[in-house]
Every structure is written in structure tokens, then in C-alpha cells.
Write a structure and sequence with these properties.
Length: 508
């Protein structure tokens, strides 16, 4: 038979749609063509496959070879189709049995010597193949990542010859194995922070309720130091959350930054801190073949944006959608791809261009106009979506020496955070920051006195309806940290305090 069909997977966001690799050997002058919307890397597969077959002492047929990657309207990229194309040629020419290909999917890039090299998106492909009831053969380097899928039937090979020997029944391929030891979080400890009791408290509230947080203060006061401690306060990832995060890292591919090994990053809450020169596409994802951006790589973790007014306005405004919905939709002419992006935003900014407005040293010389222009770089709607606005004061060297080291470490605070988060999950099945209007009516009820207090605060601080809802969610989190059944006045007043600004930052 001159026709063979091999099953594989493409990459489309964090999904892995099925691709049928159809190989036909026909008459005519020897040639090879690949059709089915292939990208440049896929079109180049014909040269890699030819060299790999010849280096492996296998026959490359002197026939007219047509390779169709179906469906034809799905873009195909990368070297993932090298192995299925090679196997299709071997099966169509009778060098391996075609029936051995029926219930198995194949992915892998071929080197000119016939070795198999790792490909991007192995974990989403493993999950999709398992759902389709098929086993999967991958390069050995993708084995630890694919093993994260649990009971998936995944085997690995080092070379094309090993795959051929297994298909002929001469040997069996090894099962994919996870790394011997799963990585554990060992981030910086909150005990390193001297003073800053107000900021530490805000950090605990943010961790407990999954709230967004803005630190405002002069240079060197500890904003970045505080932000880097947040992942250590968050509850451990569930298995579902860890699998989601690992799938995003896998789909993003190699070279996107620290932690691009999905297997070694298993279970660790991501902490992404892109530079303020990053573009909007780098933040939310995109490209001709869209890949996840920083907001998706921070899914189930923390996204830290330092020097917030220094970011371009276009980059900041694209954050509105994921902050509200927890997803990002990248639209192209032919299709739209959705990436998960439920993260905690921690932002930091200076109070003025020089950074010293309001400091006791009196060194700031910025005009009122320049201060207003600087703060206007961050739009009101974006600030409106940040739950906690916290001022961080600079401590003098003398105050730092006199400040006693905090008694509580990250582990101690994380214990309270875990208890508060569990109460939220038992009550509503989600963190307080994600409560909808109907759920808030049930869990965030106020007494008549507290309702009048909130109405007065909303009028004086010019709070929008969204801001009022965020105040209530924060108050509910404070109540959960205090193991309180309902919101009382102390909880509400503390929550309102996180929407104020003594330095004139625009109140949302």
C-alpha cells in the first residue's frame, strides 16, 4: 500500500488539536512536498527526514512523496512533525508495519543523525492523546514533562531506530518517568523584612483572599522585597492548579525565561517580574502563532510590575481583561485563542518622578504639574481594579538598626493564610477576590451602621461601584483571618483604609 496515516498533535495556545499525517508515495520524478498550512520549520522537515533516514541506514524511497497535514486549515509549526512524517514514509514503503501506528501518536524533532530532540507543548499533547484513548511516543527529553499527566501511556525514545524497532516488535520503549525529586519552593522569607508592619499586614490579606496589591513609596523602602515574599505566603497548589500551570509553561516553549522546565516547576506558584520595557504582546501573549504571555505564565501565581508608571500605557491597559475575567483572548483574522490568566497582581510605584514626594528628608523638588503628569500614566480604571493600595515609608538607618526582627516567618503567616483560604473554599468554593455579586450578597452583609459607614466613605473617597465591591471583599478576607463569621466595623474600617491615599495617589 502506498498510503500511510500517522497520528500527531499540533500546538494551538494551551490546546493540542489532533493532526493526521497522511503520506502518499506516487509515481513520477523523485520529490517530496508537504501541504496543510505548514510553517517554514515544517516545510524544512523534508531535508531533516531525508538525512535522518539515510543516517539510520533506512531507505528513503525514490518516489514522488506527498505529505498532507490534516486538517488543512490549522497552522502547523515547529519540528514536532518530523518523527510522524518519517514513520509515515517508512510505513507507506513497507519498512514498518502500518497496523502498529493505529493506536499511537508520535511527536518529535529529528536530528540529521536520527536522534530525537525535545519539542514544545508535550504536556498538552499528552493530555489530549490520553483523552483520545491513544498512547504517545515522545523524545526522551520530554519524558519528565509528559509524566506529569499521571496515568497517561507515554513512552520515550532517543533515536528513530529505537522507534522503528519497537513498532516491529523487536524491543519495547521505556515509560516516561518523572524527575526523582519534585522542586520545592524555597523563596525569600518574610522574617527578613524589618519594620513595615502595615505593608506586612496588607501582604497577608492579599495572600489570604487572592487580592491585587499596590505598593507606593520612595526608592529603597522595600517594595520589591515585600512583593517577592508573597509566593511564600500562598497556599500550596492543588494538583489541578499545578497541571494547569505546567501545561502553560509547556505550551510557551523553551527560552521564555526562568522555570521553563515544566516538570521541575511542578507545584511551585509562579512569580513573574517582567521589565517595564516589555511590550503589550509580551504581557498578554500573541505572535503569528500565539504563545502565552507573562500574565498566563503567572497563572495561579503572582505577576509583579515594578515602576508601574514607567510601563507603556498600551501595555498596562491590556491588563484590564485578565484582571476581571482571569483569561486572555488573542484574536487573529482566522481564529481566536484563549489563554488562562488568573494571577495576583502586585504593583509598585514611586509617589513622583524623583520618588521622594512626602519623604521626611524634604529632598523632592518636583512641581505639582509634573507629579500629576507622572501619576496620570497609570489610568484610573486600572487602579480601580487593584484591591489594596498601601503606602510604604522609608526607614532611616537608625530606625532599621533599632527595629527588632519580626517574630513571624513566612511559614507562620502562611499558616494563617491557609486557614483563611480554607474557610473561603468551604463557604463559596473560591477565594474572596473572585466572589460574584450574588455570592457577595450572601457572604458580605453589613449592619445598618456599617452600611452607612461604607456609603460615607464611598462618597468622600469618590469610590466607584467596583471599588465598593472590592472593599467588601477585602473586609470579608480580614474577617476570615480573624475567624469571624461576619464582617464587623473593625474589619470594614481596615478595608476602607486600603483605598485611601495620604500622599495624594488618585483614589479609585
Amino acid at each position: 500500500m502506498n498510503l500511510a496515516i500517522v497520528h500527531s498533535r499540533a500546538r494551538s495556545g494551551v490546546r493540542a488539536p489532533e493532526v493526521r499525517v497522511e503520506v502518499h508515495l506516487g509515481g513520477g520524478l523523485p520529490s517530496m512536498s508537504i501541504v496543510g498550512l505548514p510553517a517554514a520549520a515544517v516545510r524544512e522537515a523534508k531535508d531533516r527526514v531525508r538525512a535522518a533516514l539515510q543516517s539510520s541506514q533506512l531507505e528513503f524511497p525514490a518516489r514522488r512523496i506527498t505529505v498532507n497535514l490534516a486538517p488543512a486549515d490549522l497552522p502547523k509549526d515547529g519540528g514536532r512533525f518530523d518523527l510522524p512524517i518519517a514513520l509515515g514514509i517508512l510505513a507507506a514503503s513497507g519498512q514498518i508495519p502500518q497496523q502498529a501506528l493505529a493506536d499511537t501518536e508520535f511527536m518529535g524533532e529529528l536530528g540529521l543523525t536520527g536522534e530525537l530532540r525535545a519539542v514544545d507543548g508535550a504536556l498538552p499533547a499528552t493530555l489530549a492523546a490520553t483523552a483520545a484513548g491513544r498512547s504517545l511516543v515522545l523524545p526522551g527529553a520530554n519524558g519528565p514533562e509528559a509524566a506529569l499527566a499521571g496515568r497517561a501511556r507515554v513512552t520515550t525514545a532517543r533515536t528513530l531506530l529505537e522507534v522503528c524497532a519497537a513498532l516491529k516488535g523487536h524491543k519495547s520503549l521505556p515509560r516516561a518517568q518523572a524527575h526523582a525529586a519534585t522542586a520545592t519552593a524555597c523563596g525569600p522569607d518574610l522574617a527578613d523584612v524589618r519594620g513595615q508592619a502595615h505593608a506586612r499586614r496588607a501582604l497577608e490579606i492579599a495572600a489570604a483572599g487572592s487580592h491585587h496589591l499596590l505598593f507606593l513609596g520612595p526608592p529603597g523602602c522595600g517594595k520589591s522585597m515585600l512583593a517577592s515574599r508573597l509566593p511564600g505566603l500562598l497556599p500550596p497548589q492543588t494538583d489541578d492548579e499545578a497541571l494547569e500551570s505546567a501545561a502553560i509553561v509547556s505550551a510557551a516553549g523553551r527560552g521564555h525565561g526562568p522555570g521553563d522546565d515544566a516538570a521541575r516547576a511542578w507545584g511551585i506558584r509562579p512569580f513573574r517580574a517582567p521589565h517595564h520595557s516589555a511590550s503589550a504582546v509580551a504581557l498578554v501573549g500573541g505572535g503569528s502563532l500565539p504563545r502565552p504571555g507573562e500574565v498566563s505564565l503567572a497563572h495561579n501565581g503572582v505577576l509583579f510590575l515594578d515602576e508601574l508608571p514607567e510601563w507603556s500605557r498600551s501595555a498596562l491597559e491590556v491588563l484590564r481583561e485578565p484582571l476581571e475575567s482571569g483569561t486572555v483572548t488573542v484574536s487573529r483574522a482566522a481564529r481566536s485563542i484563549e489563554f488562562p490568566a488568573r494571577f495576583q497582581l502586585v504593583a509598585a510605584m514611586n509617589p513622583c518622578p524623583c520618588g521622594w514626594a512626602g519623604d521626611a528628608s524634604g529632598r523632592c523638588r518636583c512641581s505639582e504639574e509634573s507629579v500629576d503628569r507622572y501619576r496620570a500614566r497609570v489610568s484610573g480604571p486600572l487602579l480601580d481594579r487593584i484591591d489594596l493600595h498601601v503606602e510604604v515609608s522609608r526607614l532611616s538607618p537608625g530606625e532599621l538598626r533599632m527595629a527588632a526582627p519580626p517574630a513571624e516567618s513566612s511559614a507562620a503567616v502562611a499558616g494563617r493564610v491557609a486557614g483563611a483560604r480554607q474557610r473561603q473554599l468551604d463557604r463559596a468554593g473560591k477565594a474572596n477576590a473572585q466572589l460574584g455579586p450574588a455570592e457577595m450578597r450572601e457572604t458580605c452583609s453589613l449592619s445598618d451602621h456599617d452600611q452607612r459607614l461604607l456609603d460615607t466613605a464611598a462618597d468622600r473617597l469618590r469610590l466607584s461601584a467596583r471599588s465598593v465591591h472590592r472593599v467588601l471583599r477585602v473586609a470579608r478576607t480580614i474577617a476570615d483571618l480573624g475567624d469571624s463569621e461576619g464582617i464587623v466595623t473593625a474589619h470594614l474600617t481596615e478595608a476602607i483604609g486600603y483605598r485611601r491615599s495620604d500622599r495624594g495617589v488618585p483614589a479609585a
